[in-house]
Amino acid sequence: MLPLQFFGDAFLLIALWVIVVVALFIVDILIAVWVYRDAKERGMEAALWLLIVLFTGLIGLIIYLIVRE
Fold first, then answer.
1. Confidence at residue 6, expressed as pLDDT on a 0 to 100 scale
2. Which of 4, 29, 45, 46 is most buried, by the most CB atoms less than 10 A from its CB?
């Protein structure tokens, strides 16, 4: 059996990656919710913009900011 110290660095690296991925996922969801609410207030198709931003991420947000009324 290998000592726990052998797995220490790899575990920290994996944990860091998991934290980064989860944080990016949360930010993506928050941006999509903001776009949905903003589009709804402006009388635009909120559900459509929500899907666009969820599937395209930052590019969808930039497009939304350019074309919003």
1. 57
2. 46
The DSSP secondary structure of 1-69, one letter per residue, reads ---HHHHHHHHHHHHHHHHHHHHHHHHHHHHHHHHHHHHHHTTS-HHHHHHHHHHHTHHHHHHHHHH--
Predicted pLDDT at 52: 96
- What is the Cα Rg of the chain in Å? 19
**Directed axis angle between helix 46-56 and helix 4-41, to 10°?**
150
Confirm whether pTM is higher than 0.70.
Answer: yes
- 2-13 pLDDT, tens digit per residue, is 555 556 677 788
Sequence ranges of the domains in the chain? 26-69
